[in-house]
Amino acid sequence: MSFFDRLFRKIKPQISCPRCLGKGQVDWEDIKRLNQELKWRPGPCAYCAGSGEVDSEIESKVSVDEPYLTSELSAEERQKLIDNESEAVKKAQLYDAQMENLIKQIAYLHFTGKLNSETIADFYLLPMLETAHQHEAYLEEKEELVNYINKVIEKKK
Ligand SMILES: [Zn+2]
Asked: How many A from CA of 148 to the centre of ligand 1?
């Protein structure tokens, strides 16, 4: 990056982050407002990287509710997505599609297949059952998954 690029980047107008409303943290209220209850959890805001402010052009680059842009991404991957690099954009599309598919599958298994959330969780955790010595990890995973499945069922009612 040249000196002028850097200078330009610095003087670009900053606005309060539209995802976390300037808090630097995304909470359940933000998540509900952006309709991402099935895709995000509260935590540091990945849109502004926790600073509470973003460059005013960011919204034309990455949508504020882009599901893939979470604090689980590395700083490098976040920047690639903001810079619209095709590999990062493809990863985001794939991730979004996988999330949507999972939600659709859970809704189908429950509303059409008439399975309860416990049974649906067992179905997704079948591969884990084979390693029974990890029983505690299994139970923990299952509890988390059942909670998630219940959220999907509630939302898709
Ligand atoms: Zn933010």
From this structure: 24
